[in-house]
Amino acid sequence: MNSSAGRRRPFLIVQLRPEDETSDSEYRAILRYGGLDVDETRRLRIETSGIPELDLDEFAATIVGGSPFDVSAPATIKSELQKKIENDFRSLFDQVVSRDFPFLGACSGNGLLGHYCGAVISRKYGEPVGAVDLTLTDAGLRDPLLAGFPRTFRGLVGHKEACDDTPPGAVLLASSPMCPVQMFRVGANAYATQFHPEGDFEGFALRINVYKHGGYFAPEDAARLVETLRGEETPYPQEFLRRFVARYRQ
């Protein structure tokens, strides 16, 4: 008998951020915009030990957040921990893709899934921290989690690397002027976004100040970047996150 019978399965929230403040902020945003309660989730911070052995039958879906790791970095400069985490994700994706298991990867989750599926990940289409126009493809307009969205809407981004092309076998759902692969779907249930569906001003202002020496932008630009985001609202990415949770909560 399935051990989860008779109870609602939790959402597995996988985080890679090494700082408590950014990790906690990201987790709170996922809860808020996903419409989740803490007791509906199992939170895993894998930035120190990698992904433990998991039985996906115990979970409703998996949500993976962002991180300072670069998938495209040469193997010679990757730490042993990063190599372990990437190997752990390959094992996880073996299950996710073969079972078409509900999955949502944001930013780093996008690069990890894209790389697994055979896309080239490079710095060719990196985007500075800020809000951008995201444009849905025809397939995006037809996707059940994006139904009724406008063709173009705002989203928050900030990444040094991205998929060069749509991963083989995936469906492109959204693009932006500087980044052609902003969102794709593998199968019917595995989604990846280069933008941050949990993103809001408060969370991004925190990340800007924490990561100002992380190579995303010149450190002296931190205050200016915070001000450029003040007043930006991104309701459609947040609505996508809410719909993802609502669809797989049952």
Report what the structure shows:
The chain has 250 residues and is of the alpha/beta class. It is 33% helix and 23% strand. It contains 7 helices and 11 strands. Strands 2-1-3-4-11-10-9-6-7 form a 9-stranded mixed β-sheet, with helices on both faces. It has a two-stranded antiparallel ribbon with strand order 5-8. The two termini are 19 Å apart.
List the main descriptive attributes of the protein structure presented here.
disordered N terminus, alpha/beta, two-stranded antiparallel ribbon
Mean pLDDT score: 93
- The helix content is 25-40%
String of helices and strands:
EHEEHEHEEHEEEEEHHH
How far is it from the N-terminal to the C-terminal residue, by CA?
19 Å
- State the major sheet: 9 strands, mixed
Radius of gyration, rounded?
17 Å
Please give the count of helices: 7
Molecular shape: globular
Oligomeric status: single chain
Strand order of the largest sheet: 2-1-3-4-11-10-9-6-7
Q: Pick out the low-confidence regions.
A: 1-5
Structural class: alpha/beta
Total strands = 11
Percent range for β-strand residues: 15-25%
Concise account of the structure shown:
With 250 residues, the chain is α/β, with parallel strands linked by helices.
